[in-house]
Amino acid sequence: LQVPCAPSQPVASSESRRFTNKHSKKALKASLTLGILLGMFFVAWLPFFVTNVTQAVCGCVPAGFFDVLTWLGYCNSTMNPIIYPLFMRDFKRAMGKYLPCCRRSGEPRPSAISLSMKNSNSGPRAATSLKNVL
């Protein structure tokens, strides 16, 4: 008795290799962005938290030094809106769409009503009942 064997899958085509290559580049860029953001967060806030714990234990940290470390953390929060557009195309598009200083000439300005309609789930909908949901 012979069992028919399933045909083996063909070797990856050039299109699937391109697809894999494209996604690996996106994953690399995403991990790079995340690494930069987390690295900056730790560089900015870790000294503050270590100093904060040291201050609670021994009370030997000068007030001026503590203030400098606090402002270093605040500077990290200031850097995030600069870092995100540099590395994320979607964030850059959104900034350009809603901030007048970043909008390209010729792009229409979104009205408050259209923004409100987009953000709320209002508008025409199909009738929804519990029976349709389940």
From TrEMBL:
Listed SUPFAM superfamilies: Family A G protein-coupled receptor-like
The G-protein coupled receptors family 1 profile domain covers 1-84
Region (Disordered), start-end ranges: 113-134
Q: Where are the transmembrane segments?
A: 27-48, 68-87
Its membrane topology: Multi-pass membrane protein
InterPro entries per the record? GPCR_Rhodpsn, GPCR_Rhodpsn_7TM
GO terms, biological process: adenylate cyclase-activating adrenergic receptor signaling pathway; positive regulation of MAPK cascade
| Entry annotated with the keyword RNA-binding | no
One GO CC term on file = plasma membrane
What UniProt keywords are attached to this protein's entry? Cell membrane, Disulfide bond, G-protein coupled receptor, Membrane, Receptor, Transducer, Transmembrane, Transmembrane helix
Protein's UniProt keywords contain Transmembrane helix: yes
Designated name of the protein: 5HT6R protein
Origin species: Chordeiles acutipennis
Gene that produces this protein: Htr6_0
